[in-house]
Amino acid sequence: MATKNVDLTLKWLLQSESREKFIPSLGREPWITVYFDKVTENENLGIFSALIPNADVETSLSKISWDFHLEDGHLCFNKNLNYLRFGNLDDVEPFIIHRDFHGIRDSYNEMIEEFRHFHRLYHDFEKNQLIKFDDRGDETVVAKLEMDKVEVRLKEVRQFLAVKEMYLAIYFDFKRYSELILDESPQELEHKNKQDLTYYRLCASSAENFHIANYKSFSYLCGKKLIPPFPLNRCGMWPFNDKDKENYIDFIIGVDENGDSVKYSCNPDELANYFGANPDAPNYLTPVFFRREVLTKYYAHPEQYSVEDGFLRCQGLWGLKLDNNHPEYITVFLGDLASLPSDEQIYWRSYNILPEGKISKVNFDRSFQLTPAPPEQIDLMFKDRFVRFSKNWKESMGWSLFRELAESDQYLFETLRIPLTNSQAEFDSQVLALTKILIDSLNEREIVKATPVGNTEIKGISKFQQFLKAHQYPNYEQQIKFLRNLQELRSASVTHRKGDNYKKIAKAFGLKDSNRSHVLKNILVEVRDFLVSLERHFCE
């Protein structure tokens, strides 16, 4: 065998990469392997882990042997019939439990329940990952569970160790087999390493000494490395995360005599109120103005956020009172901005502008007059009217005029809005949503049943036209024409390439590049008024 190949084979056999890279990197990289099982023709590699009490660290590091084994960690009774939660292991606890069912069912690995509950982890069974959600609702993968490998984020491990007052022991047991004849090598073939939180032993020998057939040599690397916890006061978990000292962002609330922006913290404890607190500070109810585009992020993720009349919520994590009835801006009271997580405050700060005018009349009535007030923005008004119309129609007629959207299409209604920008893409998406909610959802089957001598061969709008005519709905031709134009706008702008048809229908709606939001407002007004008219004719 060539000298170079002998050197490489010897280096591989003596597991140099594990001793020089893998073991030193444990606890220093973002992810840590806490379980591993790999068997090949010339390798048998295993990693396992357990939790060691702080007080037992020196005892654990006094020996190379493992404190915990794959088959450990299962409940049992001792000879005195005492119940042992993790078996007869003194104070050592499992971190990974290997579930084995003797071939009757597939074995699998699971994180201990306490770790999952501590970080409130969600198990994504499709990807077999454990996920946590931060205050903003953003996801972070904490653990990846595979049949032969389990990896966990080091940060969450050390946070858990801090409150448990324990270390995580990573045990490794690596065996390798080679055709190399060790008698040819002058290198030391037994080595122990004990330093800091690491203790392992490497030995290499002739394979015949261990009665291993088919190979000339054999090596065995066995040991452990202990991962320390974070200091408890810096673990970043409540109540040790300095939540009360959380940073609050400054927002623009006005201008000074030089025309420069005046900023102030949204920390409610530093703001004035109507009960005499902080009299020299801005009032909690000082309005802060934002560009409407601040809501783009939330409309884009309806599975996570909900933009409602006067309120923004991130599932059950947080909510923000806001004024989205203002015709040009989004306004929020300065003190209410503190309800946002810190990172979310930073996001809102990027859309903060100088105050312009006053809050909406709706917000004034609700906040200062303490009186209920219906929405004024047409998108909010339309949604409110559509819900009430659908309920009243069904109660009066016994059937629904508009079929409910499929669950996968619910977002179309939830995110329907006056475009936040003047972009063609946003305008097209709102036209598509509106036509699906109205035209595509017409309950044709019930419309035909409620129409004397109804023609089942014609299409949806034409069936609706027959229905309106049969029930003597006034000026139905005008409303039907509007619906056909709306359907044509969807077809010409969304479904097909924009061409002469789009130019023609755009002209019918008075649509230009500069007024897309205004045109959609007019469309929503037309639809809202149509629903009101239908309700008066059929439901009163």
Task: Describe this protein's structure.
The chain has 540 residues and is α+β, with helices and mostly antiparallel strands. The protein contains 16 helices and 23 strands. Strands 1, 2, 5, 8, 9, 10, 11, 12, 13, 14 and 15 form an eleven-stranded antiparallel β-sheet that branches. Strand 6 (96-99) and strand 7 (108-111) form a beta hairpin. Helix 11 crosses helix 14 (476-495) and helix 13 packs antiparallel against helix 14. It is elongated and about 100 Å long.
List the helices and strands and how they pair.
Blueprint (H helix, E strand, L loop, with lengths): L2 H11 L2 H10 L5 E9 L3 E11 L3 H4 L15 E2 L5 E2 L8 E2 L1 E4 L8 E4 L1 H6 L3 E3 L4 E5 L5 E7 L3 E5 H11 L1 E13 L11 E6 L2 E9 L10 E11 L22 E6 L5 E5 L21 E5 L4 H4 L5 E4 L2 E4 L3 E4 L7 E5 L8 H8 L2 E2 L7 H9 L8 H20 L12 H5 L9 H14 L6 H6 L10 H11 L5 H20 L4 H10 L6 H24 L1
Antiparallel strand pairs: 1-2, 1-11, 2-5, 2-12, 3-4, 6-7, 8-9, 9-10, 10-11, 12-15, 13-14, 14-15, 16-17, 18-22, 18-23, 19-20, 20-21
Helix pairs in contact: 9-16, 11-14, 13-14, 14-15
If helices are DSSP runs of H or I spanning 4 or more residues, what is the number of helices? 16
Low-pLDDT segments, ≥5 res: none
Chain-averaged pLDDT: 89
Rg calc: 34 Å
Q: How would a crystallographer describe the biggest sheet?
A: 11 strands, antiparallel
Gap between N and C termini, in Å? 98 Å
**Residue share in β-strands:** 15-25%
Shape: elongated
User: Would you count the extended β strands for me?
Assistant: 23
Q: Determine the fraction of residues in helical runs and give it as a percent range.
A: 25-40%
Supply the helix-strand structural class: alpha+beta
